[in-house]
Structure formats: structure tokens, C-alpha cells
Design a protein that fits this description.
heterodimer; A: alpha/beta; 6-stranded mixed sheet; about 25% strand; B: 12 helices; 2 strands
């Protein structure tokens, strides 16, 4: 029972508001295996980010908890690295120094100075940022900032990588480049990833499982879709595959038909 | 890239290149006319108005000085400084000759080396003022920045201290000075004081008046730090001290600089009043002495001081702006 890598164990979350407690999440239960890529999808306001923040330890669940490799975790830590939606790089540090801050903290005693330097450069190379590693966030594009954010998270050597709509703020072309990079990295590193998204194509392309959440209040997991597409996946090949389109429409039906946002008229995709 | 291209990109050389280049010459001339010509023209008008109106007011010390009288007084102050420098070097020369003679006669003779003690000149007074204002300012920053960080981090501490800050912020230096004078006299008692009491009193008064902008801006800069950056610190499990040093302080640096710039401006402004009352031998005392002196030159000399004070204040602000541009990561903040 407890042999899963990460268990989100019946997590319920109430927020205190002026008009009494507001139940954001109701008994969210999910088990994730090592190396699995899981995306959370749902309408905005359904509590996807709340789930992620609880896993990260930034929020404390009202009921239930998070179990990582058999141990309950209550506070943030580098083994659950977060890639934030708006990169969250320290604007006064260069790309290299941003990653360095993380590496110096996580490998304070375990790596020598040269090892740390190599490790920082290695991670920036993984996200194709070697050419601009001494630039500050102001001097690079949004996509590049997000790459550095991913490099910083990867450099913590996390057992779970948490991504909060990592490509949400990027243009479509940059987004697809980064999705491809992320797939390459995940294939090589076999990292466990939880990613929040509201992009159906992104979810199907990247995930092993898509967790679809119902609308709040008291949001919970509606359905889980297993994506059995062979890896490596290529977006162009997939576009013509009936299985791919099947998964797409499955997610779309959930979002726009069975769990349409109450304030928007339901439409079938 | 050729050397010429490199030089072109240095901001100091850029206008000259544009002036030499035929295509951009007209633009550059227009921009020069606008940015230098217009202020120059306005300044001429100002001098004209001053000249015309000054002589129509007659005081007990004679007419209010116009620009030309003030210029004469500025020259005379500079002349006095030069004269004093000559006197000083002659004094040391004489002393050396005298002592060497003594030593020639008897190598074991005890000789005295005295320091030159002339009346402080105008230039000395400027430097005394600068020394005093920077002492007060640095003490203010050393108090205000840590305090601002603490009040910025803790909502409770902010609520607790805010009323106190708001009450003390608008207090004039003239109100503080008597209290500071009495406290300094009571507390700062040594036989061989390193600093004059008047200096300590003036500097502390400057501190009391100029710490508030830095304190409030630091506090605001720290409390408005991006929550995501704090989350990064949490995920990395930075300890409190590292979090402050690596995340909170750098994040607040643009605001801290803005506060420090305001503080130095306030400090320079209140210094003159403080020196007048405390008799610290700086520009404030110069103005006061000239006023008491009441010769026909006094108003002109005070006017020189007024212009000097303004010019130095302007320079101090400019230096702070350059420092801010250099050290602050948020380059847009320095243009405000």
C-alpha cells in the first residue's frame, strides 16, 4: 500500500475567509510512481495550484497529508523542487548565480567547489542555456528565463519536480520548444514530475497520466486518464494519430461537457 | 568590432560621434540646443531678473546684492583661501628652518613641531560641513536600514513602530538641537575629545532628521518583496540569515537607495540650521557669523554660501544617483 513513490493522501484544504471556512479541496487522493509524469488539468480556480503548493509544503493541508518515499513531509524542501509559473528568478543574479544559489544550498557539504561549478554548468546545458548563463533575467527572453527556472529546479536533484503552469506565460512557439526540451530531459533523467496545465495538447503530449479535477468549491479528482502513447513522442507524428486525438477529445469532453465551468456555457469540442 | 565602433558605444563619446557624422549632425545640434541651450537661456533670464530686482531693495546692511556683487564676494572668499594657503606654507617653512638651525647647533635639542592654526577659511568650512553631514548620514543609514528590514519583515513590528516614526518624522532640526546639545554635554565628557561637541551635536541632529526616509523606504522595499522569491527561499530551506542576505536585502536595494538619496537631501538641508545653532564651524556657522558681523559685504557673502549650499546639495544628489545606478539591479528605479 505504501510502496508508491509519492502519495497525496486524502488531502482536504479549507481556507479561512471572512464568511467562514472555504473548502478548496475535498479528499484529493493520488499515488504517483517513480519516474512518472503526471499532469493536473482543470478550470482555473479548481485548486490545481493548491494541490501543488501542498505537495511542495508551501501550504499545510487541513486534513490528510503528503507521503514521499514512506515519510510524511510537512514543510518545503529542495527534494520537491518547484518551477514557478513566472520563473521567480532573483533579478539581481545572473542565470548561473541563480542556479548557484540552489546548488550551494543543496550540496553545501557533499560537492567540492569544482564539482559544484560543473554541476551548475551541466544543468544549464541541459536546458540549452550555456550561451547565456552569465546574463541577468532582464537581458533574456521569457522562454529563456523559464529554462533557467527549470535548470535551477533540476540542479536540486529533486525526487519530485513540481511545475506550476511552467509554460503558461509563453508564446505558442516557445512553449512547444520548451515542451520538447522537457521531454528530452525527462527521458534522460527519469524524473518524477507533477505539472499543472490548462493546455490539453500539452497534457496529452507530455503525460503518462492526466488527472482531471472537478470545479471548486470542494474540488477533487474527477477522472484519471492513462496516456498509453509510445515514447519518444513527436508532436508532428502524433497530430495524425487517432489514439492521440482520442485522448485529446477525452480530456476536452471532461472539461467542457461533464465539468464545464458553471459560469460559462457548456460546449462540446 | 573596430576600435571606432567600440568607442561609439561608450556613452561619453556617442554625442561627439554624432556631431562629427554628417547624417546625424543636425539631430545632435538640435539636441544640444535643447538640453544645454534652453537651461542656459533660462539661467540668463534668472540672473537678469535678480540683477534688476536686487538693487531696488535697501536694507540696513546696504542694497541686496546682485549677481555681480556676489561674484566679487566669491572671488574675495577664494582669494582669502589662497592667501591663507600661502601663509600656511610659509609658517611651515619658517618652522622647518628654525628647527633645523636648532638641531645643527645641538643635535639633542628638543624641537617643537606645531600645526598651523589659522582662522578656518571658506573652503575649510565647506569641508567641515561635508564631514558633518556624512557622519550624520552614515549613522542614520546604519540605524535605519537594519530597523527598516525588521519592520518590513514583521507586520506586528511595523504596526508597533509606525506611529512613533510618523510622530518624529516631521520634527524640525531646530527643535531637536537643544535636547541633543544638552544630552551630548551630559554624556560626551572626556578630557581629550576626539571630536568637538559642536560637531557631535550637529551630526546627531542630522541623523535624527534624515533617518526617516531610509527607514520607511527600506521597510517598504522589504515588505513588498515578491512572494514567489520568498517561496524560492523556503523551497531551498535557506536559514533566516541567508534569506535576509541573499534574497530580502538585494530585493530591497532599489528602495533602500531611493530612501538614502532622500535622506542625504534632508540631511544637507537641516545641517545648515544645525550648524548655525550648534556653532559647528561649517557653512551654517559661516552664514550666522556673517549675519552677526553685519558689514556691507555680508549679504553678498551669505549669498555665496546660499549658492554653494545649493550646488553641493545638487552634487550630492547626483552622486547618490550615480551610486544607485551602479549598485541597484533595478535600473528603472534610478530614473525616477
Amino acid at each position: 500500500m505504501n510502496d508508491s513513490h509519492l502519495i497525496i493522501d486524502h488531502v482536504t484544504m479549507d481556507f479561512e475567509t471572512n464568511s467562514g471556512p472555504y473548502r478548496a479541496l475535498d479528499s484529493v487522493h493520488l499515488k504517483i510512481d517513480k519516474g512518472e509524469f503526471v499532469s493536473l488539468i482543470g478550470h482555473s480556480g479548481c485548486g490545481k495550484s493548491t494541490v501543488l503548493n501542498i505537495v511542495a509544503g508551501l501550504y499545510q493541508a487541513t486534513k490528510g497529508g503528503i507521503i514521499l518515499d514512506g515519510t510524511e513531509v510537512n514543510e518545503p524542501g529542495p527534494e520537491r523542487a518547484v518551477v514557478f509559473q513566472n520563473h521567480s528568478l532573483l533579478p539581481w543574479l545572473t542565470a548561473y548565480e541563480n542556479v548557484e544559489l540552489a546548488v550551494n544550498q543543496v550540496f553545501k557539504k557533499t560537492k567540492s567547489k569544482t564539482q559544484k561549478k560543473q554541476w551548475i554548468e551541466h544543468n544549464l546545458e541541459l536546458v540549452h542555456m550555456s550561451h547565456a548563463m552569465h546574463k541577468k533575467p532582464d537581458e533574456i527572453s521569457g522562454g529563456m528565463k523559464q529554462r533557467v527556472g527549470i535548470a535551477r529546479a533540476l540542479a536540486m536533484e529533486p525526487s519530485v519536480l513540481l511545475m506550476d503552469e511552467p509554460f503558461g506565460a509563453l508564446d505558442a512557439l516557445t512553449r512547444s520548444h520548451l515542451q520538447d526540451s522537457l521531454m528530452d530531459i525527462q527521458r534522460d533523467l527519469k524524473s518524477t514530475v507533477i505539472m499543472i496545465t490548462h493546455d490539453v495538447d500539452e497534457a496529452v503530449l507530455l503525460s503518462d497520466r492526466i488527472v482531471m479535477m472537478t470545479n471548486g468549491p470542494a474540488a477533487t479528482i474527477g477522472e484519471i486518464l492513462k496516456v498509453n502513447l509510445a515514447r519518444p513522442r513527436h508532436r508532428l507524428d502524433l497530430a495524425d494519430q487517432p489514439e492521440y486525438n482520442g485522448y485529446r477529445s477525452e480530456v476536452l469532453r471532461f472539461l467542457h461537457d461533464r465539468h464545464a465551468k458553471p459560469d460559462v456555457p457548456a460546449k462540446v469540442a | 568590432m573596430s576600435m571606432v565602433m567600440k568607442l561609439k558605444n561608450i556613452s561619453f563619446f556617442a554625442p561627439w560621434f554624432r556631431l562629427v557624422n554628417v547624417e546625424t549632425r543636425q539631430d545632435q545640434i538640435n539636441s544640444l540646443l535643447k538640453n544645454i541651450g534652453v537651461p542656459l537661456f533660462a539661467f540668463m533670464i534668472f540672473l537678469g531678473l535678480w540683477h534688476a530686482s536686487a538693487n531696488s531693495v535697501v536694507t540696513s546692511l546696504g542694497k541686496v546684492p546682485g549677481p555681480s556683487e556676489v561674484f566679487v564676494q566669491a572671488q574675495s572668499l577664494w582669494g582669502e583661501y589662497k592667501e591663507d594657503k600661502v601663509k600656511e606654507s610659509e609658517f611651515y617653512k619658517r618652522q622647518e628652518v628654525r628647527n633645523n638651525k636648532k638641531l645643527e647647533k645641538n643635535p639633542d635639542a628638543s624641537v617643537k613641531w606645531r600645526e598651523y592654526r589659522g582662522r578656518p577659511t571658506y573652503v575649510d568650512q565647506i569641508f567641515t560641513s561635508l564631514k558633518t553631514v556624512f557622519t550624520g548620514f552614515i549613522i542614520a543609514v546604519l540605524i535605519a536600514v537594519p530597523l527598516g528590514v525588521l519592520t518590513g519583515l514583521s507586520q506586528t513590528l511595523y504596526i508597533a513602530t509606525n506611529p512613533i516614526i510618523q510622530i518624529f518624522k516631521p520634527v524640525s532640526p531646530l527643535a531637536w538641537l537643544p535636547i541633543v546639545t544638552m544630552v551630548v554635554s551630559a554624556v560626551y565628557v572626556t578630557d581629550d575629545p576626539m571630536f568637538d561637541k559642536s560637531f557631535v551635536t550637529s551630526a546627531i541632529t542630522v541623523t535624527l532628521c534624515c533617518m526617516w526616509p531610509t527607514l520607511m523606504n527600506t521597510s517598504m522595499g522589504v515588505s513588498s518583496i515578491n512572494q514567489d522569491l520568498l517561496n524560492v527561499a523556503k523551497v531551498l530551506r535557506l536559514n533566516w540569515f541567508t534569506k535576509i542576505r541573499k534574497v530580502v536585502l538585494p530585493s530591497a536595494v532599489p528602495m533602500i537607495f531611493t530612501g538614502m538619496r532622500l535622506s542625504l537631501g534632508v540631511g544637507w538641508m537641516v545641517l545648515i540650521a544645525a550648524e548655525m545653532l550648534a556653532q559647528n564651524p561649517g557653512l551654517g556657522k559661516f552664514v550666522w557669523d556673517e549675519f552677526q558681523n553685519g558689514s556691507s559685504n555680508s549679504l553678498g557673502r551669505i549669498m555665496v554660501a546660499v549658492l554653494t549650499i545649493g550646488l553641493i546639495g545638487f552634487l550630492l544628489d547626483w552622486i547618490m544617483l550615480l551610486l544607485q545606478r551602479h549598485f541597484s539591479w533595478d535600473k528603472t528605479a534610478a530614473n525616477r
